[in-house]
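Please check this.
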Amino acid sequence: MSEVLLLSGGIDSIALAAWRRPAYCLTIDYGQLPAASEIAASSSVCNALGLNHDILIIPIAQLGAGDLAGKPQSVASTNPEYWPFRNQFLITLAAMKAVELQCERVIIGTVASDKRHADGCENFVLQLSALLKLQEGSIVLEAPAIKHSSLALVRESRIDLSVLAWAHSCHRSNIACGRCSGCAKHSEIMQAIGWNR
């Protein structure tokens, strides 16, 4: 089956790109603060890996919340980066693109630690996949690394560290702030794999 990867430019989706080598990668600028760096990271990775890369610009910043939107944290979640229904929205856009590209599957870089969000758990992936399959195009949604830690995914992918170094994980800025949960995870993983440049 041909796949469209929802590529954010973060460590997990970059490692998944190297592991699965999808037919297409899709990066979406939905109005998040670090959009420019996410696009730059994703484009550089796709160029290095020889993967097709598309970019969509669908601004919904007025509906955002938390770190990614530069707004107060949502009362609906204890997580500072929570943006209501963001993953559901982005996956829907990726499925729309998959139909256009005549691909059968959308894959996302959800890992085991993402279960702290309702849209990062296995049941969410199964339910949304079932909904997509009900519709014309019968798109399947998969999260191939949902049982992996980020570190295990990086190791499984066998990604060249010079490619992984393009990753941009900051939730607050196009330049890593060093204080958000995305930056903390980025530092932890890069140290664990021995990157010290």
